[in-house]
Amino acid sequence: MSVTNRHVPLGDTIGLRSKLAVTGVRVAAPVYRRGGAGPSDDGHLVIGGGNATLPINPASPYSLRDGQMWLGDEPVGLPVRTVARPRFYDLSTADGVPYEHIARLHGADVLATTVVQTCIRYDEADRCRFCTIEESLRAGSTVAAKTPAQLAEVAEAAVRLDGIRQMVMTTGTTAGPDRGARVLARSARAVLQAVPGLPIQVQCEPPAPADLDAIRLLREAGAVAIGIHVESLDDEVRRRWMPGKASVPLSQYEAAWDEAVRVFGRNRVSTYLLLGLGEDPDELVAGAAGLIARGVYPFVVPFRPMTATLAAQDGAIGPDAALLADVSGRVAELLRAAGMVGADQQAGCAACGACGVLSAVGA
To answer: Three-state SS string across 226-268, please?
Structure first.
């Protein structure tokens, strides 16, 4: 059968991308992610020119061939390719640490690292039920703490060899009142000395009220965007899914978001909203509207139960595709009306867009 490039209308696009995000695809992906600090256990592809992380699912009705996405024996009108293994993965530091243990490729052009791979909230009673930040450390696929010099070395090689265009730095929550912001500032400063002009997003919990000045230090270090991730605006959901983080009241998130918008600017601050944790969809959309009014980009992402998470042990499942399409579509409309586009952040999860479907519909 010949491949056709059927135009996919906007409504069809968000529906199809939502089905792919939930159902996954049958493909051998050279670049994939297993465990860690983020929300997904996926293969990395480029769909229609944009980054996408999709579950690798041998039972999925979707497959990749001839540069197209197929549903059974029919092409669905989306050009797609896998992301090639980057050349910087073949290198190691002078003391023998593989570069891919320090930072990883996300999508086609994003370098991502968890600077501190431990978290004060990882005891089972406090742990976020969707997170496996310390499992990759236990598996020996990363190191506990990346030094600024290591990060600068890897970033320089990734830009030079593989055309990296942005970098994301996250961290496990540390015990100090800055909750990891200062180590991110040191790391960003070192990377930018090695690779001037590389857009960097930093991600951490809200610094304590007495230490909100740490947000300014991140901007002064050269970061262009910041993610302060709440995952849910429903306190009952927060207590159930992330008991440790729920000890930080939403008022502290609001104060940190407002300070971050003051320092970084409108639409340079983002937060994850995980869909599928049990939050009422209408309330989630209303909460997203409130964030947008604050100048904060609500990055809606489907919850996907990663292997080794507490959620997976409990048999939790993610949202269905129709719910993802509905909520993402409504939030995308709000974002477009406010003139907020994730790509305008230059770096970070909203700028990459791979783990959700908002970027596929112009948000």
So the answer is: EECCCECCCHHHHHHHCCCHHHCCHHHHHHHHHHHHHHHCCCC
Which pLDDT tens digit goes with each residue over 265-279? 999 999 999 999 999
Q: What is the signed CA dihedral for 33, 270, 223, 87, rounded to 10 degrees?
A: 20
- Ordered by start, the domain boundaries in the chain are 85-361
The CA dihedral of 357, 215, 121, 43, to the nearest 10 degrees, is 30
pLDDT digits (tens, 9 = 90+) for 74-84: 999 889 999 99
d(CA 350, CA 353): 5
Per CATH, domain 85-361 is 3.20.20.70: yes
Q: Who contacts 145 (Cβ-Cβ below 8 Å, separation ≥6)? A: 115, 116, 117, 118
What is the pairing mode between strands 43-47 and 50-54?
A: antiparallel
pLDDT at 39 over 80: no
Residue 293: count other Cβ atoms within 10 Å of its Cβ: 10
**Which run of H or E residues covers position 32?**
none
| Residue written as token pair 């029919």 | 74
- Give the count of beta carbons closer than 10 Å to the beta carbon of residue 251: 10
Confidence of residue 6 (pLDDT cuts 50, 70, 90): very low
* 184-187: Cβ within 8 A, 24+ apart: 184/115, 184/218, 184/221, 184/223, 185/214, 185/217, 185/218, 185/220, 185/221, 185/223, 186/148, 186/221, 187/113, 187/115, 187/146, 187/148, 187/151
